[in-house]
Design a protein that fits this description.
With 424 residues, this protein is of the alpha/beta class. The protein has helices spanning 4-7, 20-23, 28-35, 51-62, 76-88, 115-127, 140-143, 146-150, 162-175, 190-196, 200-212, 223-232, 244-256, 260-272, 277-292, 298-313, 319-331, 337-352, 367-371, 410-423, and strands at residues 41-44, 66-70, 104-108, 131-136, 153-156, 183-186, 218-221. Helix 5 (76-88) links the parallel strand 2 and strand 3 (104-108).
Amino acid sequence: MSPLAERLRPKTLEDYIGQKHLVGEGAVIQRMISQKHISSFILWGPPGVGKTTLANIIAKTLSVPFYTLSAVTSGVKDVREVIDKAKSSHFFGHDANGGNCSPILFIDEIHRFSKSQQDSLLGAVEQGIVTLIGATTENPSFEVIRPLLSRCQVYVLKSLEKDDLTQLLEMAIKKDIILRQKNIQLKETNAILRFSGGDARKLLNILELVIDSCQSNDIVITDSMVTDVLQQNPLAYDKKGEMHYDIISAFIKSIRGSAPDAAIYYLARMLEGGEDPVFIARRLVISAAEDIGLANPNALLLANACFDTVNKIGMPEGRIPLAEATIYLATSAKSNSAYEAINNALEYVRSTGNLPVPLHLRNAPTKLMRDLGYSENYKYAHDYEGHFVKQQFLPDQATGKTFWTAQDNAAEIKLKERMDSLWK
């Protein structure tokens, strides 16, 4: 018998719980389905909120071919094979009512696709050979290449609310072919809702685990009962990797918090659980840039070296550079000043638009540009003592604006002192 979460997977929008801002009456995805015209889009949200289920419902409702690829196991060859199948499909084109009947290509964890893999999708999406539906738990702005992102809308899915989860629990007890044969009473739900963390799949896995632990068909579910069962078998409700994101979150936060023992513990948890070592190495690179940054630029070099090494040697030897990088990053000085600086600059750019670049900084490859004053009065820094000369670099409106602020660590204090001496 399949797991409870799989048995209860919704087949129609009427059974789909949550995400009313996308699938409720008059919402964007509901309208696309009713109009039978689906544009390519990416579903961004935490695990267990219905991304895969929603893609399946769309394909079934529209009766179009549905192809699924996992970014973890699929390569460029697999993408091209699916595109070739879509081209030869007699469903390709438009139906008599004007609906979009292009086959749907669903890519789970699309953020794990490399640039070349994402590039291989561009033509098919552009030409309408396939309608792409991607699912990701990572911010598409950082993980999906810009040309592909420009061809897709991004829809954000939210963690399920308490009312959604409660509705799901009640539906499971009343409608599931196995559970409805038992006399199950939900006396207390705080613990099961808390442990699920807004994840429908995790919620149902916990419910199934708790019920399976009871010998009787008369079951009264309480908070203490749920807590006791999970403490006895904390990994049992993680059969499909639902704790993946909890562990990687704890791993990164332990590095950020300068707790090397905790970081190496979570690294071991991930490796023992079969996590992709390249995924771990990739997160180390991000952590080195975001959390350590200018306090110790060598951290990024080491993290990159770890990433390359793990790619080259694989497991089990890859555990050693992973451990080395983890401990180095956890014990390193920390700074997020670069992270804060780019966020500050992006916010300013979005609020001010395209401010004109000062004329003396503009390139002047043509006579017309030179006549207009492009590059005029530009001072070449290397011609001056100390390879520095004061001049304006920011647009007029942004002059005096500060985006980067040095933090209190030896490396950045030294950088600030140098800037202060140059620009005093």
